[in-house]
Amino acid sequence: MKKKTIIITRLIFGLFLFALGSVFAINAKIGVAPWDVFHQGVAKLTGITVGRANIYSGIIIFIIDIILGQDLGWGSIMNMILIGTFMDILMLNDLVPVFTGFTPKLIMLILGIIIQGLGCYFYISVGLGTGPRDGLMVALTKKTKRPVGIIKSSIDISVVTIGFILGGNLGIGTVIMAFFAGHIWQFIFKRLNFTISEIDHRFIQDDVRVLKEKFNKHQQGKEKTPQ
Questions:
Q1: Sign of CA dihedral 123, 97, 190, 196
Q2: What span, in angstroms and rounded, lies between the C-alpha atoms of 188 and 178?
Q3: How many CA atoms lie within 13 A of 3 on its CB side?
Q4: What is the spatial distance between Cα 194 and Cα 17, in angstroms, rounded to a whole number?
Q5: What is the tally of structural domains in the chain?
Q6: For residue 155, what are the CA distances in angstroms to 40, 74, 141, 151?
Q7: Alpha-carbon dihedral of residues 119, 125, 126, 130, nearest 10 degrees?
Q8: Taking CA 80 as the corner, what is the angle to CA 18 and CA 134, rounded to the nearest 5 degrees?
Q9: Which residue, 87, 124, 153, 217, is the most exposed by fewest CB within 10 angstroms?
Q10: 145: DSSP letter
Q11: Rounded Cα–Cα distance for residues 138 and 143 (Å)
Q12: Does the pLDDT at position 109 exceed 90?
């Protein structure tokens, strides 16, 4: 029970950090990550919050992942729900400041990227599955047999284009995050001796299978018990 509590705590803390980093990038107001351009566009079109746009798009992507055969964990579901919820709490209560001047904005954006990287480390390292958007990238890579770089770039270009058309905040920050966020995250992971490919994820179907096995053993035990 203690081990499970630590795992869940690390997962939630990681998702909070990722949401905090996302809000830092948004409040920098010099352009945000590709998916957040999309979320902002959807929010402006529909009148919902950016956090809700994050959650609702995550649900749709979650369904697409399942259709494409991508394995998802409980962490994937919590990722879909909690990141958007945490973003709303932070933004609606003005818990993250907004600065004027390009230099403070740039520093804020870079801090956001670093915080997101730390968030990824905490929530992915628990091994309960990746987020719906990461799962989409993996699923399309498997289906198309194309390099992951091409798939990620195609997804990013698509969501940025749609988000910009809908009114999302596209700027130099978007370019910085597209080209440098991955390298910054890689540096953070290296310093923490963390390798994503070595994480053994536990998926929802694994727990379902265990429950079925326990149920079958229980039923067999009842049948063998003398009446």
A1: positive
A2: 17
A3: 1
A4: 17
A5: 1
A6: 17, 24, 11, 6
A7: 70
A8: 75
A9: 217
A10: -
A11: 9
A12: yes
Rounded (10°) angle between helices 132-144 and 148-166:
130
Taking the C-alpha atoms of residue 88 and residue 113, their distance in angstroms, rounded to an integer, is: 19
Taking only the tens place, the pLDDT of each residue in 151-160 is 877 888 889 8
126 burial type by CB count under 10 A (0-12 exposed, 13-18 middle, 19+ buried) = buried
How many CB atoms lie under 10 A from the CB of residue 148? 12
Question: How is 7-48 classified by DSSP, letter by letter?
Answer: HHHHHHHHHHHHHHHHHHHHHHTS---HHHHHHHHHHHHH--
Which one, of 21, 4, 18, lies nearest residue 122 by Cα? 18
Segment 63-108, tens digit of pLDDT: 998 898 877 888 888 988 999 999 999 999 999 999 999 999 999 9
What is the residue whose two structure tokens read 């035990």?
A: 221
Percent of the chain with pLDDT over 90: 43
Answer whether residue 148 shows pLDDT above 70: no
Contact between 163 and 46 (Cβ < 8 Å): no
Rg (CA), the chain: 20
| Structure letter (DSSP) for residue 192 | T
Q: Which two tokens stand for residue 180?
A: 């440098």
Give me the pLDDT at residue 12, please: 96
